[in-house]
Design a protein that fits this description.
With about 130 residues, the chain is of the alpha+beta class. Helix content is about 50%, strand content about 15%. Helix 1 links the parallel strand 1 and strand 2.
């Protein structure tokens, strides 16, 4: 049986890359197929459409203004399309129905949930629990 892991993540979250790396380590250790599906989560859905000045904040978060701008370019392509915004709103609504309040958030086989950047060992235990309950 192939495991599935849904990951709810926000590109601005400093813990999400850590959670991604730990999940990847757990998948390698698991040694069997795992399907990973990524879902966006907007940490501040009430942000004004024009945004707010965050240059200093983002330099501190991403190391340089250039790194921050590269991220913005990728996000802007999605946000400038109706389909992209609809997908983000739908994903946010789904996350709120699951009572996701923080990211990263992981759902293993649509039944086991893990919040925050867990250790690879915690992921492995969740994988084994999911396989055992099927």
């Amino acid at each position: 049986m192939t495991l599935s892991v849904d990951v709810i993540s926000d590109v601005i979250c400093p813990w999400c890359p850590l959670g991604k790396r730990r999940l990847e380590k757990a998948i390698v250790s698991y040694g069997k197929p795992v399907t990973v599906c990524w879902h966006p989560f907007q940490r501040n859905p009430t942000m004004p459409a024009d945004g707010i000045s965050r240059r200093e904040y983002r330099i501190g978060k991403f190391g340089s203004w250039e790194s921050s701008m590269e991220l913005d370019a990728n996000i802007e392509a999605t946000l400038n399309s109706d389909e992209g915004m609809d997908a983000i709103k739908e994903a946010g609504d789904h996350a709120r129905r699951l009572q996701v309040e923080g990211v990263p958030f992981f759902i293993v086989n649509r039944e086991i949930t893990l919040s925050v950047a867990q250790s690879p060992e915690v992921f492995l235990a969740a994988f084994n629990q999911a396989i055992g309950s099927t």
